[in-house]
Amino acid sequence: MATTDVEHKRGQLAALTMAAVVIVVGVPLWWGTTGAQRAWLPVSQMKQLSKLQLQLRVDVEVVFARGTLSPEQQRKLPLTQTQHEEHVADADTHLKYSHETTYRMATIMEEDALNRPTAAEADVSLHMLGESRFGSIVAYVIPESSPLLPEDVSVYIGQRRTAVLRIGTEMRVSKTLTQFLFQLELRVKQVLQVMSVSHADIITVSDRVRHRPGYRESSPEPGLGCKADGVAFQSSPGYDITFSLLNPDPKSHNLQWDIKGAVQSYIRPLLTKLAPVADFSVDSQILYYATLGVNFFDAGLNGYTLNADSLAHVINPLEATLGSNAASSNPLLNFVLYVPDAHHSPLYIRSHRKQGVASNAFHSARWGGIMVYNVKAHYGPHSECPDNINVNMAKVMGVFLAQLRLMLGVRSPEISPGFLVAPRGNAGLADWELDRLMWSRSVENIAKAATTISSLAQLLEHIGDIVINEDIGQQLSSSVTALQLAVAELQAGKLGSALQYSKAAVLASERAFFDPSVFSVSYLSDEQKFAIYIPLVLLFCVPVLLSLLKMSSEASQRVADDSDARIRMPRWTEEHSNIST
Amino acid sequence: MCVCVRHWAGLANILLPRSVQGFCTMKLLSLLCLFSVYLVVWSNNIETKAGQFFSSGHTNNWAVLVCTSRFWFNYRHVANTLSVYRSVKRLGIPDSHIVLMLADDMACNHRNPKPATVFSHKNMELNVYGDDVEVDYRGYEVTVENFLRVLTGRMPPSTPRSKRLLSDDRSNILIYLTGHGGNGFLKFQDSEEISNVELADAFEQMWQKRRYNELLFIIDTCQGASMYERFYSPNLMALASSQVGEDSLSHQPDLAIGVHLMDRYTFYLLEFLEDIHPASTANMNDLFKVCPKSQCVSTPGHRTDLFLRDPGSVLITDFFGSVRKVELTTETINLTITEEPVKERPMHGDLQKERQSYIDQLPVSEIIHQQQSRVKCKHVLAAVRKGHHEIQQNGVAMGRNCVSHSLRTQWMLCVRMTFSKRMSITFSLLKPVFFQPIKVTPNSICAIEA
């Protein structure tokens, strides 16, 4: 009897120990080893990023030339003035623009520059005086009688970050300084709309990056938004540019194109200017016997025509032959110069209205451009052996440069009457255009990084199996930091560093999002989990569970016995007391 | 149109809590509904007329075509995928925008009586392998992991461009899958499977990163409808060959090849696509009608509730083709010619550098087409043996094409082929002749011609 009791006790002890081991060691071990690894992430900050709240500051310096203000007005001139403009696009997008205007009188050197005979020369010499910061604008106010600007021009926008304003009649008649400044402010605002960040640009960019289902229907001008931003490439840290010369008929003409020199003299200046925005790699190729693969229409003596309808089908067959740089994943821009063969020459592109196109070129959104270049006129008298023909690179690059500007998202703003915009020159890009691009690129980058991070946060919340290791955690943290810095720099009006921070933020966030290790194929359905765990759990846990059940039933039995005994006890005492009384 | 609906719905919402009593509200609501329906119909008509071309906001098209099964008896899955590949290519999606994953190489299979071909129609009518197939993932590379990596873009940095899906927020993507599946999964390579949850999560990740504008998902497998049940990301449209609990059946048995050449759903899908050309106006509703139960035996299903546009306004070519949107360039920049002195190229001493070039490539595709005329083939072979023909080392071209002479003396140049001993000897004998560029000087040309 005693030995079975001891056995019984030992059995109970064993079962309890097993259960304890399972609970204390087994369960945490299982929990710890089967869960997805998650590094620490700034989750709350990441989630906040789904709201885009930006404040963009533009510094404007208004410089008065001699003869624009009376001495008394000069004395009363305020030093600075700040204007705020707030736009709430939707629940998640708050944009605030502040224009910090500084007023001062022109220095002697600037006076000298403004006394130059033409506005272009004045622009150059004003630029020589000092270095202008990214995103800032200097507006020079000149008297009405100044011969600097032509008669009908009231505002001249230079190649750099300067504008020259002539005092208008409405400013001259205003009596007090505040009225005068108010009128001036209106004018400056018009200038800013051309030269600096515009709300329309920013909102298109941020909508494009963060578009949610149905955004297109709700945007105020759907057609405009889609068309305007559809052509340009997305913001990317780098672009690959390929210039291709297609010579389908090397038997009739031997083409020489000095692409090296042309890139050096026409494309390189633009790319150098765009260096803060992105890196570019340029290469070129010549393809022989490559054809366009569409039918040309014979237009009699005037040559052949390529109709606008068939242009859409030109690119795809061509793309197979163009090839691409296998090593990089940057967006690819193609610029193709097509020289038609002798039998289909000259070849002209016709618009839908059957009219000729001056450039004889077309472009496709986010792809590049194609130009048709006719050489028939250059054929020598004896056309038996191939003629050596030099391609006029200035003409070709003029077209490609315009297309490149479009592809990169440089848009010519609408010019109000009375404005004169200086020609872009050989760089193909004015400084203020670069600023505009940088504004929209920084906002695009910020929006892109924020979307990436917040969507990753959302995904992590939604899909439990995604593994996040330490490295990615760090990338994300650094991306969040860079993003905050970029926003702060925009608020401080430092466009250059804001763009750099925003680029860093995008890079880090993309690297985190697209890291090969952020990848879960560890999803298992409930049935599968059941099937995996049952053999393990059954073998081990069933005996333990059964003995625990048995023990608990025994224990409850004992408790019941005890309580029975306790219930009986008072009855007995009662009886006893009864007896005693 | 959507604005209208939303507007009225919003109005109804405002009206609902404030309105006096139920009856009046009901009346008003039903009136509103009628009116809004009228508006929808009316604006729909206008929209369909007003240039369907611009209705989709995409600028580029991508296609991911996947065959997930290997082994000879699954010939039909490879044929399915290759025929869809042919169709999208014909409609204008370039190879650079197609990610083609084939789990097995039927063209080079030992049991293929006609090497270097994959037929999709009975009696060997249509060779879908052709001479220009660019397979991006082949054989054991076709795994669930690789497929999901392609979709989500999580690639090792060394991955070449052709193996990536470099789509953006303006891309329309066609995803076609075929293989063996069951309720909620699709088998890959007989060793693993992708579940519908994983697929739905992958699409969500794509959407979160704006990797597509619209996505069309087509799957030809048993119980195909179960694969799109779990999708939850917007702008997805899905089609499947069969409902849950149904099998998808094969089609086109061929006695000579000994297996079925296609699956029913894909067969009729391709028949439908045959009539599509880049400018055709057929829409998605036409696609949904493809392969009714009388033809398919299974019931094809589709899902459009996640898609924002009306399927009737979505052109087939929005997904199956690629029509570029082009604009004429009107703006040009006047560049002044910089009169720079032309730099003299630095003269190197060795001007007399010998020019090296490759001799003509072996006309592989010609050989395939002219298989029947054995005389010609013999001639080529003889020429090769003599060393008169040389081919440029072109691994891709060699890998894609198989050259066969006759069944007795099979002389294949498949890269993935296992060489028997004798063959490898032949190959190594040929190798120096094949792969070495030779110096071309007038003398050496004479030497070869002699």
Describe the structure.
The complex is a heterodimer of chains A (581) and B (450). Chain A has helices at 2-34, 43-48, 71-76, 108-114, 119-129, 169-173, 177-195, 199-209, 215-218, 222-230, 259-273, 308-311, 315-322, 393-407, 431-462, 470-492, 495-513, 526-580; strands spanning 52-64, 80-90, 93-105, 137-142, 155-157, 162-166, 238-247, 253-256, 279-288, 297-298, 304-307, 332-338, 347-350, 361-364, 368-372, 387-390, 419-421. With 581 residues, chain A is an alpha/beta fold. In chain A, 36% of the residues are buried. By secondary structure, chain B is of the alpha/beta class. Chain B has helices at 2-18, 22-49, 75-90, 144-152, 196-208, 225-228, 264-274, 284-288, 293-296, 317-320, 364-369, 374-386, 395-400, 421-435, 442-449; strands spanning 60-67, 98-102, 137-138, 171-178, 181-182, 185-188, 192-195, 214-220, 236-240, 250-253, 260-263, 301-303, 326-328, 356-357, 438-439. In chain B, strand 6 (185-188) and strand 7 (192-195) form a beta hairpin. The N and C termini of chain B lie far apart (77 Å). The interface between A and B is large, with 78 and 62 residues. Strand 14 (361-364) of chain A pairs antiparallel with strand 13 (326-328) of chain B.
